[in-house]
UniProtKB/TrEMBL annotation:
Belongs to the acetyltransferase family. RimJ subfamily. SUPFAM superfamilies: Acyl-CoA N-acyltransferases (Nat). GO terms for molecular function: acyltransferase activity, transferring groups other than amino-acyl groups. Keywords: Acyltransferase, Transferase. The keyword Electron transport does not apply. Pfam families: Acetyltransf_3 (PF13302). Residues 11-178 form the N-acetyltransferase domain. This is N-acetyltransferase. InterPro entries: Acyl_CoA_acyltransferase, GNAT_dom, N-acetyltransferase. It comes from the Bacteria. PROSITE patterns: GNAT. Transmembrane segments: none annotated. It comes from Patiriisocius marinistellae.
């Protein structure tokens, strides 16, 4: 990876380490964080370890296809959450962003700032043409984040997300390298 840390004034995005295991596991213990989680919610730290090990393995590949970062405060180094950029369809230079933020950092602009860093990295360093994101139609906070960074709602998938409370519709968002960006 050209840069192991992405930075703004308030936050750093750095690749996941095994030492992040406890913070990541604790993040998943908040029901409100995983309300819209489709990956399954690890209840045991060993389950979380399997997920974290796979992220570390992906981050250490020569050709990284799935970047997973820790979001932390620049000065205090406090854990804010996780964010990822999945690269797929290399021929078409596409990526997909996802994120999870600790509740004590909600409504403070950290998710928006982290997504903007990922967009910068994806377009400027990885030469992506398109970055997309999906979210449950009930996930108002993520909808606001995606629209704040300049992503455009492209459509709605019917009952595509298997959530804890049943199947949910999904909004698909994207931004192109040529689209105006919002910071």
């Amino acid at each position: 990876m050209a840069h192991s840390t992405l930075q703004s004034d308030r936050i750093n995005l750095r690749l996941v380490f095994l030492s992040d295991l406890n913070a990541i596991h604790e993040l998943h213990l908040f029901p409100e964080v995983d309300e819209f989680n489709t990956l399954g919610i690890p209840t045991e730290i060993n389950e979380t370890r399997i997920v974290v090990d796979s992220w570390i393995y992906s981050n250490n590949k020569h050709q990284i296809e799935n970047y997973t970062f820790i979001i932390e405060e620049t000065k205090a180094k406090s854990f804010i959450g996780t964010i990822g950029l999945k690269l797929w369809n290399k021929k078409n230079n596409k990526g997909e962003v996802w994120y999870k933020i600790h509740p004590k950092y909600w409504n403070k602009g950290f998710a928006t700032e982290a997504v903007n860093l990922i967009l910068d990295y994806g377009f400027d360093e990885l030469n992506l043409h398109r970055i997309q994101a999906g979210c449950a139609v009930e996930n108002i906070a993520s909808i606001k984040v995606l629209e704040k960074v300049g992503m455009i709602k492209e459509g709605r998938g019917r009952k595509v997300l298997p959530l804890k409370n049943g199947w949910s519709d999904n909004f698909e968002y994207s931004i192109l390298e040529t689209d105006p960006r919002k910071k």
